[in-house]
Amino acid sequence: MNTALWIVTGILAAAFAFAGSTKLFIPREKLMKAPGAGWVEDFSAGFIKLLAVVEILGALGLILPAVTGIAPILVPLAAVGLGLIMVGAAVVETRRQEVKHALVNLVYLALLAFVAWGRFGPESFTG
User: Fold this and answer.
1) Strand, coil or helix: what is 109?
2) Buried b (16+ CB within 10 A) or exposed e, 16-25
3) Which tens digit of pLDDT belongs to each residue from 50-61?
4) For this UniProt entry, which residues form the secretion signal (predicted)?
5) Cα-Cα-Cα-Cα dihedral of 32, 112, 93, 29, to 10°?
6) What residue ranges do the domains of the chain occupy?
7) Does residue 42 contact residue 92 with C-beta atoms inside 8 Å?
């Protein structure tokens, strides 16, 4: 179980670090032209940059506390926080009639829920 949690956590951390970096370093106008990024039209450039920073911090929060042993309770909390972002993303994309993208976000949500459950429960770093 611990190995599965580490694998899923690593994949999620990489995905959120990549997504956050993309949002942070690519201008809003260019992001709007990317496939599946129609949601960008609904938000300001400032919000997109804030979302990027939160995603990058969440990715770091999935890995660093466990690796360093400093405040490992932050791992499941980061998973919960990123899960809330995925709920919001799924809602936005459902409203925009982008059901396929919303389903992808729900898959991320399920994986984040698995990490949160595993690290709060049976494979907790603090227990």
Assistant:
1) helix
2) bbebbeebee
3) 999 999 999 999
4) none
5) -10
6) 2-120
7) yes
